Structures are given as structure tokens and as C-alpha cells.
Amino acid sequence: MVIDGWLKEEGAYTTEVQQQMLESHVKAMVLRAKTGEPLPEVDRSLFEEISSESMQLAERAVNALPGLPIEEAYLLSVHFEIARSNA
């Protein structure tokens, strides 16, 4: 997965369980990009503690899938923040 390379560049990594969760989330994002299924409303204030680095990685992934709303990046950023905390 391309995202694994991005994490490695950041010196971050996922455990086996974290990797499975990340892959599941990305698969769901791809499906939403294909079907246009919307996300439930996202409270952005819940993500104030997420680092800008994790958010940038998430935005990079979301931008690779046309048609996804930026709210996808907020949810995905949590995975990156956890991976970065493993480093």
C-alpha cells in the first residue's frame, strides 16, 4: 500500500492490528469514492489534537481519491497519528 511508504518516510509504523484497521478504513474510503456515499457529519473539534503532519498525510491520501470530502481526512488522520506515536 502506498500509504505504508508515506508512513515509513515519516519514521512511523503500524502494528499488525493497526494495519488491518487502516486497510479496512482505506477500503471503505475507496468504496465511498466509487459510490458517492456520504459520511455522517464530522465534528472537526474532536480532531484538534491531531498533528498537522498526520493531517497532511491524511489529506494526501484523500486527495488521491477524487470526489471524497475533506471530512474523510479527519477520520483517516487518527490512523496516522497512532502510527506516528509508535515511532
Structural class: mainly alpha
- What portion of residues is helical? 55-70%
Q: How large is the share of residues in beta strands?
A: under 5%
Distance between the termini: 19 Å
- H and E order: HHHH
The value of Rg in angstroms is 12 Å
Q: Count the helices. How many?
A: 4
How much is the average pLDDT?
Answer: 93
For the sheet with most strands, the description reads: none
> What are the segments in which pLDDT stays under 50 over at least 5 consecutive residues?
none
Question: Care to describe what's here?
Answer:
By secondary structure, the protein is an all-alpha fold. It has helices at residues 2-9, 16-35, 52-63, 71-86. The longest helix is centred in the first third of the chain and has 20 residues, at 16-35.
Notable traits:
single chain, 4 helices, mainly alpha, 87 residues, 0% strand
Please render the helix and strand layout as text:
Layout: H1 2-9, H2 16-35, H3 52-63, H4 71-86
Helix pairs in contact: 2-4, 3-4
Short description:
The protein is mainly α.
